[in-house]
Amino acid sequence: MDIAFDSEENIIIADSGKHCLQKYYQDGRIITLYTSKDMLPSSLFVDEYDNIYFADQNDHTVKKLTKAGVMTIVAGIQDKPGSQLNQLDTPYGIYVDRNNVLYISDTANQRIVKYLPNNQGIQIIANASDLNLPGCVFVDETGDGALYVSDLYNHQVLKYAPGASKGIVVAGGRGFGKALNQLYQPHAVFVDSTTGSLFVMDNGNYRLVKWSKGTEQGELLSGTTRIISGTGIRFDSQWNLYVVDQGAKRVLTFEFNSNSCK
Fold first, then answer.
1. Model-level pTM?
2. How does residue 258 score in pLDDT terms, banded at 50, 70 and 90?
């Protein structure tokens, strides 16, 4: 389950439980954009043209739904999971940059792959030598262009500089635990390019934390609110923070200048 915003600030939800994509308009209307009993959408991305990309874990593909309602497969081979370069196996996190490069967390294959636009090729950015169950991905496009990956079973977030084959630990990496310098199966990630702050859904600890650039530990943002399974983090244009709590089947809004979720 994930969340994104289109160009008019309408909310797009990938609902894995209901097997659909839904749009929540600013005026309160709700419509279903696409549904199939066989789909299992995980992560979601909306580009500047309001094309919606989503990873479908059930058929091992990444799909694109245009604003006109046209659906195409842009990565993977439908119903054929595998480890060949043109295959995916239970993909999860996705990100599409402004150059139309598609980044995918190919979770069951323990790798991050990059699909270049216009069929220019597919590249492996990271693999099991660095990762143990990669989850979400995020590219800091307005900052240094680095790729961030949540590494669930190593309990850390890795940062890959452009062109790098090895990541550096920017959060966690001290084994799993509850201390603020530790993470426990981190999931959704987001980077504020203006400050370099990294927002992490620390799922095993049921909390949202912020790691400021260069710090050795995180700052608890979710207060006493218990986030059962945070699978998506997004900011709107006013820097209101939205957190998808799939475990509790809800979306939380976070008042960025306060110290609590509501």
1. 0.94
2. very low
CA 51 vs. chain centroid, Å, equals 16
Give Cα 106 distance to the centre of its chain: 12
Whole-number Å distance between alpha carbons of 76 and 205? 33
Q: Are strands 71-75 and 91-96 parallel, antiparallel or unpaired?
A: unpaired
Q: Is the CB of residue 149 less than 8 Å from the CB of residue 112?
A: yes
Distance CA 74, CA 235 (A): 26
Domains of the chain: total: 1
- Note whether 168 and 156 are within 8 A (CB): no
- Region 59-68: what's the mean pLDDT? 97
Which domain, by its residues, includes 166? 130-262
Placement of tokens 């890795």 in the chain: 158
Residue among 36, 30, 27 nearest 61 (CA): 36
In this structure, is residue 101 part of a structural domain?
no
Measured in degrees and rounded to the nearest 5, phi and psi for residue 108 equal: -70, -20
Q: Is the pLDDT of residue 3 over 50?
A: yes
216 in any annotated domain? yes
User: What digits encode the pLDDT tens for the residues 174-187?
Assistant: 999 999 999 999 99
The set of residues, in sequence order, having a beta carbon less than 8 Å from that of 87 and lying 6+ positions away, is 60, 76, 77, 80, 81
Q: Which CATH number covers residue 167?
A: 2.120.10.30
95-5-214-101 Cα dihedral, nearest 10 degrees: 20
CA neighbor of 15 nearest in space, from 41, 38, 50, 51: 41
- Determine the 3-state secondary structure of 118 from DSSP: helix
